[in-house]
Amino acid sequence: MTKLMKILFAVLCLQGGAALAQAIHVVTETTPYTYLKNGRVEGTATEVVERTLERAGIRDYSLHVYPWARAYDLALKEPGVLIFLIARTPAREKRFHWAGEIMKIEYHLYRLREREEIAVNTLDDARNYVIGVMRDDVRQQYLQGKGFTRLVISAQWTDNFRKLLNRQVDLVPLTEDDASRLCIEAAFDCANLERVLTLDEASTGLYMAWSLMTPDEIVERSRVAFEALRTDGTVHRIMTGIP
């Protein structure tokens, strides 16, 4: 941490006492980096957020895994809500206070390997097929922004993946890690899943972000704390599993 960052952090700590009287609500969804285990929210991204809050001196908070649409709605409407992992897009830019990029993500369209009749070489090709997406997720927003209309919307990725297996949808947009996790949960051999197209324009960074009604002192303290963890390599070590 630079001298300037140390001074700013100290000032924010002095100013933030009143703001921290309000409990913080931290929300996320189930991913390979955020999940419930023995009743506790765990995962590498969860650890990054908890380390950030600890370094910022923010200890009065609750941490929950929700369906994405509920987590997103809370972060849009309630004060003192910290949401992660959320894609930073132009449409969302002014809806949140962005506190730090935890990781970068790349989305791909997948089909069942046996469904050779589904031929997708370009994004326009994908318009000919039914695509399963999750409500209020960046992939739904991206495809709708591109004029896609044949979208089947689910509340959970497990439901969406089940629709792919049951041939209720033709394609689903996933990360490689999401695909692996969903295959394991569904007891499905991932060798029978095929990646057909990378959604380059939708691939982006995943952040921690605050609701707009959150006090500025809290937002800035978390930004300073996250930047310190990023600069000293802590974020990279946690996300890559390096001891």
Q: State the helicity in percent bands.
A: 25-40%
Under the CATH scheme, the architecture of the largest domain is: 3-Layer(aba) Sandwich
CATH superfamily of the largest domain: Periplasmic binding protein-like II
Cα Rg:
19 Å
Biggest sheet: strand arrangement: 4-1-5-12-6
Overall pLDDT score: 91
CATH topology tier name of the largest domain: D-Maltodextrin-Binding Protein, domain 2
Number of continuous helical runs? 9
Task: Write down the CATH class of the largest domain.
Answer: Alpha Beta
Main structural class: alpha/beta
- Characterize the largest beta sheet: strand count, sense, and whether it forms a barrel: 5 strands, mixed
Low-confidence stretches: 7-19
What tags apply to this protein structure?
243 residues, alpha/beta, D-Maltodextrin-Binding Protein, domain 2, 2 domains, five-stranded mixed β-sheet, three-stranded antiparallel β-sheet
Explained architecture:
The structure is a single chain. The protein has helices spanning 3-15, 44-55, 68-77, 123-126, 138-145, 157-165, 176-185, 216-231, 234-240; strands at residues 24-28, 35-37, 40-42, 61-65, 81-87, 96-105, 108-112, 131-134, 151-154, 172-174, 193-198, 204-211. By secondary structure, it is an alpha/beta fold. The protein folds into two domains: 3-105 and 205-240, D-Maltodextrin-Binding Protein, domain 2; 108-198, Periplasmic binding protein-like II (D-Maltodextrin-Binding Protein, domain 2, 3-Layer(aba) Sandwich), CATH 3.40.190. The radius of gyration is 19 Å and the shape is globular.
